Amino acid sequence: MLQKFPAFEGVKGPVVVVVMDGYGIPKHDVGSAIDAARKPTLDRLFAEYPNIRLRAHGTAVGMPSDDDMGNSEVGHNAIGAGQVYAQGAALVANAIAEGAIWQGEAWQQIVAGARAGENGKAGVLHFIGLFSDGNVHSHIDHLKAMVLRAKEEGVPTVRIHALLDGRDVPETSALDYVVPFEAFLKELSGAGFDARIASGGGRQCITMDRYDANWPMVARGWRTHVLGEGPQFANATEAVHGLRERNPGTIDQDLPEFVIAENGKPIGTIEDGDAVVFYNFRGDRAIEITRAFVEEDFSEFDRVRHPRVTYAGMLQYDGDLQLPKRFLVAPPAIKDTSAEWFSKSGLAQFACSETQKFGHVTYFWNGNRSNKFDGETWQEVPSDVVPFEQRPWMKAAEITDAMIAALQSGQYKVLRCNYANGDMVGHTGNFRAATMAIEAVDLALSRLLPAIDAAGGVALITADHGNADEMFELDKKTRQPATNKDGSYKAKTAHTLNPVPLVLYDNVSGGKLGLRQTETAGLSNIAATVANLLGLQKHEKWDDSVLDVK
Questions:
Q1: Could you tell me which of 149, 486, 95 has the C-alpha nearest to residue 327?
Q2: pLDDT at 320
Q3: Phi, psi (degrees; rounded to nearest 5) at 121
Q4: Residue-wise pLDDT tens digits, 389-419
Q5: CA distance 138 to 307
Q6: 58-62-64-69 Cα dihedral, nearest 10 degrees
Q7: pTM to 2 decimal places
Q8: Distance from C-alpha of 523 to C-alpha of 464, rounded to nearest angstrom
Q9: Predicted confidence band at 341 (pLDDT cuts at 50, 70, 90)?
Q10: Given phi > 0 = left and psi -120 to 50 = alpha, else beta, which region is 210?
């Protein structure tokens, strides 16, 4: 159990953590959907209640450098664990740099599987993943290193299934990656080695669904990568040009599927005896396609055929479910999370979000753990399967309903929720929809805060990273919003490097409590702050609290 906190006996009511996903603190008025939104509740919170800034990107959340944006996975890891762990990007980069990945049993099995093939014929090594250097789900340099190593180890044929990004990188930047990579593969090929891009499509169109929200999207990916079904092109560069001509105005993440073919025959279907590496290191958008490859009794869609392959993920995407059992780099072993220790202290906890972020307030919050701790209740609100810009309010109202009901039940001492609006709508690049998303969260807070007051509780209102705070790309030289040739602003769909807020909503201590701003304050300081509000000392492994007791 956690020890009593001598400086403060704790609030009598519950402590609520509210994550406004994608809500950064903007540096520019122009391009900030947050500044443009009508948000009287949030304006009042920032004007009247203690608030500080928290770091939510780069080394503060375990990424390799401070040039790396944060994301919802690492953000919720840090909030829930109270600690900073080296995350996927850093783990993989280190494993490649040190050569440990090549010595691992999983990589050796992948190579052996591809070389052995089936019926005396060598197999093909397939790489599927997000094709960019966004460093949120994957990095193209990791892919390049694996292709080079495959050639060194005698794998005769490599095929790449490229999921176009336009979300963690500029929205129409696909050719910046495809053109040089095809040139790299062409130079590498020859003398018994053949490496080419075989299929692909936008990440929001095929393959990379998450949280069981849109299985037809995964099915399209399966038909594209495995069965070779889709519009045919001579190479990936021609595919991107052709798809843009056929789908004017469509950004990379939404481009439909494509297949590379010769004489009408796909060059990279996945067959018995092949090996497959899903090279994303982040787990949420890797689990469903992994299930399609590894589960014998799979029923989410008709696979038509299920090739016998040697399959590996870059990391293990779900430790409790062991998905997949074979993985190239071990994920961080996150121990002593806040939920675990609040449970050991006998505190009942409640977690809620809609499908799009449900795994973040549960699985990621609990240190990449699928199972509940004793005393935890999880409530998922099913997300709508529509483009987010068409329904920017998403499920904020329903999440609020669930939170209010949980507060009124009197069962829970610690509650947490995630409003996904600012992030999911921010990713669309639609400025007006993003302002509506922020307004929906503001309205939700106007309903939730009185329920917290009625329960005698307090709230910490924060975010996991920025997104809606910068809806336009910034010029690299001027750091001002960049413009297109027609003078319009270039839409930005990626996360930002901006800090996020932490607001202490407290109407019960009589002004006794505040927040302490420090240079290093980040998301990992929240867990200890919650503990202190509960009248408990932090776990020794957690980063320091930012609670100021006057």
A1: 95
A2: 59
A3: -115, 130
A4: 999 999 999 999 999 999 999 999 999 999 9
A5: 25
A6: -30
A7: 0.79
A8: 7
A9: very high
A10: beta
Mean pLDDT of the chain: 95
Please say whether the beta carbons of 251 and 429 come within 8 A: yes
Q: SS3 of 506, please? A: strand
Helical spans, DSSP H, in 303-430: 338-344, 355-359, 396-409, 421-426
DSSP summary character for residue 285 = T
Query: What's residue 318's pLDDT?
Result: 77
Give residue for tokens 């010595």. Answer: 103
Other CB atoms within 10 Å distance of the CB of residue 323: 20
How does residue 315 score in pLDDT terms, banded at 50, 70 and 90? very high
Cβ proximity of 82 and 542 under 8 Å: yes
Residue 449 and residue 400 in contact, taking contact as beta carbons nearer than 8 Å: no
Distance CA 17, CA 503 (A): 10
Which residue's entry shows tokens 């939730």?
448
> Which of 288-306 are b and which e, b meaning 16 or more Cβ less than 10 Å from the residue's Cβ?
bbbbbbbeeeeeeeebeee
Give the tokens for residue 264.
């009408």
Active site residues: 72
| Nearby residues of 193 by Cβ (< 8 Å), 6 or more positions away | 151, 155, 156, 157, 158
Whether 85 and 73 have beta carbons less than 8 Å apart is answered as no
pLDDT at 482 over 90: no
Distances (CA, A) of 480 to 57, 358, 488: 21, 35, 13
Q: What are phi and psi of 540, to 5 degrees?
A: -60, -25
pLDDT band per the 50, 70, 90 thresholds, residue 143: very high
With a CB cutoff of 8 Å and minimum separation 6, the contacts of 252 are 164, 165, 166, 167, 171, 172, 173, 174, 202, 203
Q: Is the pLDDT of residue 487 over 90?
A: no
| Residue keyed to tokens 């490097």 | 497
Nearest to 40 by CA among 442, 379, 464: 442
| Residue corresponding to tokens 């919720």 | 76
**Burial of 395 per CB tally in 10 Å (0-12, 13-18, 19+):** buried
273 vs 516: CA distance, rounded Å: 59
**Is-contact 203 129, C-beta < 8 A?**
no
State both tokens at 35. Answer: 């500044």
Are the C-beta atoms of 236 and 255 separated by less than 8 Å? no
10 Å CB burial of residue 512 (0-12, 13-18, 19+) is exposed
Q: How far apart are CA 69 and CA 137, in angstroms?
A: 11
Q: For strand 51-54 and strand 500-506, is the pairing parallel, antiparallel, or unpaired?
A: antiparallel
Q: Are 334 and 61 in contact (CB under 8 A)?
A: no
